[in-house]
Amino acid sequence: MIKIGVLALQGAVREHMQSLEACGVEAIAIKHKEELQEVDGLILPGGESTTMRRLIDKYDFMDALKGLAAEGKPMFGTCAGLILLAKHLIGYNEPHIGVMDVTVERNSFGRQVDSFEADLAITGVADDFPAVFIRAPHIVDAGENVEVLCKHNGRIVAARDGQFLGCSFHPELTDDHRITAYFVEMVKEAKQKQLV
Ligand code: GLN
Predict the structure, then answer these.
(1) Is any atom of ligand 1 closer than 6 Å to the C-beta of 132?
(2) Per residue in 103-112, pLDDT tens?
(3) How many whole angstroms from its chain centre is CA 46?
(4) Is 150 annotated in the active site?
(5) CA 125 to CA 28: how far, in whole Å?
(6) Which among 23, 79, 150, 167 is annotated as catalytic?
(7) What is the mean pLDDT of the chain?
(8) Position in ligand 1 atom list of the atom nearest CA 49
(9) Does ligand 1 have an atom closer than 6 angstroms to the CB of 49?
(10) pLDDT of the residue at 114
(11) pLDDT digits over 174-188, tens only?
């Protein structure tokens, strides 16, 4: 049985768990770093990246999160979660977890447009994915091994860097589970590889 964790320090946790369950895998809310040892992959939800970072430090999660990445376990960052995964952040000297080879800008769709919805064509996922953006970041630059999965108005809003998947929007706020299903496939493939 595949087990996927959802980092449960802050943000949209329950909706991600429901989406994972709809995809037929076991979902666990990760509240203690030790629980990361049980999972085959991890979702980092949307919320507020600065608050999540504060809680990551407070509960001593950073080494365990970097360790999970080093083990090759797939990690999926949505919105604030993408900010946590990025290797480079515009306006910051240091990244947070810093494992996905992208440069991300926070709150980059402008203050006027706090939130909006768009139907997106996402490579390998859907032609018409209903995406909800809330004070969303976007990917300004992607490393050479990064596969750009989706652009919206010329901006990269979904990408994959090997074991890492990131998107600017909140897939868990709709009943469309196709991007979660895509991540579940990444986790299954990674687990398969570890078994052989
Ligand atoms: N603006 C938030 C941040 O910078 C992200 C917003 C979200 O996750 N919906 O962390």
Answers:
(1) no
(2) 999 998 876 5
(3) 8
(4) no
(5) 24
(6) 79
(7) 96
(8) 10
(9) yes
(10) 82
(11) 999 999 999 999 999
